[in-house]
Aspartate-semialdehyde dehydrogenase
Amino acid sequence: MLKGEYKVGVLGATGTVGQRFILHLHNHPFFKLVALGASSRSAGKAYRDVTKWKQVKQIPESVQRMQVEECTVEHFQQCDIVFSGLDHDVAGPIEDALRNAHVAVFSNAKNYRRDPLVPLVVPLINTSHYSVLPAQQKSLGLTKGYIVANANCSTTALVVPLAALEKAFGPLEQVQATTLQAISGSGYPGLPSLDILDNVVPYIGSEEDKMEWETYKILGGVSAQNDAFDYHAQSPLTVSATCNRVPVIDGHTVCAGVKFASKVKPSPQQVMEALSAYTCDAQHVGAPSAPQQVITVHQEQDRPQPRLDRDHQNGAGVNVGRVRGDALFDIKFVVLANNVQIGAATSSVMNAEVAALQGYV
Amino acid sequence: MLKGEYKVGVLGATGTVGQRFILHLHNHPFFKLVALGASSRSAGKAYRDVTKWKQVKQIPESVQRMQVEECTVEHFQQCDIVFSGLDHDVAGPIEDALRNAHVAVFSNAKNYRRDPLVPLVVPLINTSHYSVLPAQQKSLGLTKGYIVANANCSTTALVVPLAALEKAFGPLEQVQATTLQAISGSGYPGLPSLDILDNVVPYIGSEEDKMEWETYKILGGVSAQNDAFDYHAQSPLTVSATCNRVPVIDGHTVCAGVKFASKVKPSPQQVMEALSAYTCDAQHVGAPSAPQQVITVHQEQDRPQPRLDRDHQNGAGVNVGRVRGDALFDIKFVVLANNVQIGAATSSVMNAEVAALQGYV
Amino acid sequence: MLKGEYKVGVLGATGTVGQRFILHLHNHPFFKLVALGASSRSAGKAYRDVTKWKQVKQIPESVQRMQVEECTVEHFQQCDIVFSGLDHDVAGPIEDALRNAHVAVFSNAKNYRRDPLVPLVVPLINTSHYSVLPAQQKSLGLTKGYIVANANCSTTALVVPLAALEKAFGPLEQVQATTLQAISGSGYPGLPSLDILDNVVPYIGSEEDKMEWETYKILGGVSAQNDAFDYHAQSPLTVSATCNRVPVIDGHTVCAGVKFASKVKPSPQQVMEALSAYTCDAQHVGAPSAPQQVITVHQEQDRPQPRLDRDHQNGAGVNVGRVRGDALFDIKFVVLANNVQIGAATSSVMNAEVAALQGYV
Amino acid sequence: MLKGEYKVGVLGATGTVGQRFILHLHNHPFFKLVALGASSRSAGKAYRDVTKWKQVKQIPESVQRMQVEECTVEHFQQCDIVFSGLDHDVAGPIEDALRNAHVAVFSNAKNYRRDPLVPLVVPLINTSHYSVLPAQQKSLGLTKGYIVANANCSTTALVVPLAALEKAFGPLEQVQATTLQAISGSGYPGLPSLDILDNVVPYIGSEEDKMEWETYKILGGVSAQNDAFDYHAQSPLTVSATCNRVPVIDGHTVCAGVKFASKVKPSPQQVMEALSAYTCDAQHVGAPSAPQQVITVHQEQDRPQPRLDRDHQNGAGVNVGRVRGDALFDIKFVVLANNVQIGAATSSVMNAEVAALQGYV
């Protein structure tokens, strides 16, 4: 179903999310990186000269001398797909303008996540929400071009096992989640070192609200007319999230408890089997960035751990451990997801891969 | 009610808990430190020569040359009170022998916490449980001597605000707690640095069980005959605890959600006022180690934080912040307690102070 | 020689250095804190409302409601002494204007450190350089008011033992110093956490040059006419500094090697004795902030360590350990100094105390 | 020159060095991993069941079920080559017994490093020292089997650029080195977390002596008769090392200053070019583990940094930055080497690869 090679661009290419987009895209089987966008300060210069590169992998040879452009329609309308790693304070109008210029925009920014016609997609779960894209286009009088948002990093960690549980055992009724989030989630420069060394910060601005709200949208369905999301309306779900920042570089840990709507409760063993067996469309359509195993279930009682498990499968799947029963909830477990991979750039790229493979681009 | 000065000893004096006992006791208004106990390897030598001192404060001058003794009845029966910082693998028989030798033993070890006649006491909450001490003595045919245990460090952090809430608003029905615990909680050498730098360990052996079980005992009452604990039997309470280790030196953070039994729910504002207003017997009887304020309620949305708040009031009180409503529970909040102070040695010393001031020694 | 109480002000009062000035001054025996200066954004408001307080000790009660003023002559000319915790990009003209308004300015900023008539003073070493103050005033046509600078934090750590060695054994000829500097040295927000967690940054902008240059000025003498510094000219000294940032909150560690000019070399034992015996004018005149022991010499082979030793004597002295011989240099040793205490605010305050006690204010 | 596939074994296979040997060897082009040795406690069991695996990469499938054997001649004499990751307290007799059984032993332990007939080899420098192996065998009456040691991890970091400098500009006269060493260098469990979080330990037992002594042996030559090492005797060299432990997981940073024997001094630019141009025999003979670039010279003033640069080329080369002139030495620079790769297992494997390719096995 692929239409050959797709021209892709990256907005916010010099930032940390942009740097990760570049590492994902520079050698991609069917995406060809043709445009890099940054602020006017960097425009017209070679990428390597305007970027404070902060990745363990080196700047790809092919990208070092690429000229950086301003993030305008003029420079990016040649692209089939644009990935946006822009900060939310500038992302809105630029992404909208590119959509109007018939570009498929896959955004890591939060600006359009709550838009009633923008799919909020975790590629390991709900690429089926793309069915709403025609309605999005219709509402704007477009025949091409749209915006797809990926979820907040901590939401992504939580919802993958939740989706697998709902698929296997029916709707959830209650979810309690407490996060221990990595500092890379706050971007760069992000959190000052004096605030987090030998410390925990028990607050991340608006993160708890995002985790609750995004979960309803992602785990919910789509209207029969494919013109709206139902926000899990078919079965009431209550999510309570508590978010903390901890001195970990990459990898969000989420301690979760869940209660099923059904009176028949699965055992921890059944839960582990269901999580291990879970597969997703990104795998079925052959998305190159899809992990072999969506959810890796750990048997050791002290795993997953961010430092040891975050890079498994290039961080494209999630890790679950400590699946056990509970007196308050039905099941408790721990999730670990790589916030800078599946929690950010990897999600956007995989979303676009699925869109391309399904003919949405 | 004080009977003058009390002779006190410290078991496990060279370990980290023992070192903190010494810092608390070397200058105490009515406890006189007369005996230091350690393994036979150290016995007969000067304290400073057998101790790898790991505290920020220096070894008190008066203690440096004190001779370390073996932890036997012979060396400690001269004491009115003995504080035990022993590891649980050796604490049991030694503490029992001293009790039989008419010594009041205040132990930080876990060995007797579940004993049906040993009070498990957080001095900011339930020194009223001392009313069971005569029954303990009677059961052993003793007229003097007993064992009082203090709680596990993570339990201590959690139960102080819970006790304040029950005092103000009646019994709790559900408690959910997720901890982010400091490395000092695992003792010394404790956690290898390779296991925790840039990492989270989502498991602490038997800690979750302890937090649940100890909470019932501490928050519960005493039988009318003062010969048993009721483990919160008058009103069913379910506690669900999840425990994590994080790269923080001192200070356990606990993210908690609570549901009240009463249909009338307090507002976050009422909860904050009740927590601030809470006082305890240790304050009323004038225990020298009691904090001025049992619970310090923080208004800033990102507090309490371990590094900034753990040493407030020498770590003798607890800190609460982020009091807010919740869709799943009635109220959520964050607690911070200094695990090596009120979570360990400070508790034992304050317990003994109250016991002395109330005539139990 | 004190003229009663001195009115003092703090410039940059809301920053981290300013916060430490406040902790030093709010309860001072003869300095009365009367004015707090910050940017125009904060002016007119209560201190506690415009300050993101980041200290372990709480905001002093007496300071919480003090009104913050702009850093202008108008608001600070009432002061006998002004302490400057300003950033160097704004410190220059403000400090100069206050000097012209007859105020004694003790500055932690670097702007005037290289001024040929401004004493660069580490209070544990060279308060004798105050003899140049009349020449500074004369050059500006002033009868009152002057600027005294304290040294860079890493310089301070190094020069204290060097001064003690020169006092005991005559001039040094070569000094090699490699630092492991704490993150608090970069201010707040300072170093991003992503740059330093699980990392070392082997570079601190212009720090090596400062350590070399400042050492010559501080260890050097004053001309016979008290109108110039001699920059150690009486005996050639070469300093080679290498500076690193490490993930430590407070406390700069410096590994040093020294070669004496004299052919007769002291033994490590003699060096340790000389360091321990060293005293300074700040002690002799009774400066309240002076440490009891200027240099604490550690015998344990793995000390000093930042976390364990930085707060000894409130960080007002320095720690030296691992004094040993060497094949390349005569003596090698390790210094630890608390960069936010003796390396910053404590130095300024102690400098002012000595100035007041010696009649310079 | 290869004689086909070589059977190899790993001693100490369950430890951290052993785990890294396994990751290097499980897929090797001409080494076939046939035997895993550990303590008698683990013998007879499947590898995955007796190993607390602590690597980011997972246990190779092919190794998981391999049976662990005791480290005896019986189990390892089938091997052409044995790699030893044993602790030094047990390594000596086992390695000696295997040598006597005609096995080529490549050891990471320190036991035979000072042996006058055992080559101490950093594979990026002095595989030419293998010319002494016949003398080693002759002294023991052997025709096959020998021991080759690799260097201490901090020595390895330092000597690679030193060798390149001597090759380009002639002998060095003085070397000053201060290290900032990663915690993984102390093994597992190694350093307790309480000792190193927010801290520096300015001492590593016997490390400074090792760095000085090993440098002489490695940089030195071999006697004309190939029966002795000359320990750099042809030109006197003085090394002064100072060693520190810092809270970094992997990657030793070394700040070095060097003085050349020659009166003609190279410029920093010439030094950078010489370091970049340096090649070694491991590259020339095509050792599979040899890095493409032995020394990567960084131009950015704040590089190399452990977290960003340690994994470049799988840690098989070293990184140098901040090459600059100096008033005390001729040239100063910073080296970073991955202590668990080129500083340990990678060295041993590369040493064996060269030996095999040169016909020594």
Remarks:
- Chain B touches chain A at residues 174, 176, 178, 180, 197-203, 212, 238-240, 242, 244, 246-249, 253, 255, 257, 301-308, 321-322, 326-329, 332, 334 (CB under 8 Å).
- Residues 153-169 of chain B form the longest helix (17 residues).
- The radius of gyration of chain B is 20 Å.
- The domain at 153-339 of chain B is CATH 3.30.360.10 (Dihydrodipicolinate Reductase; domain 2).
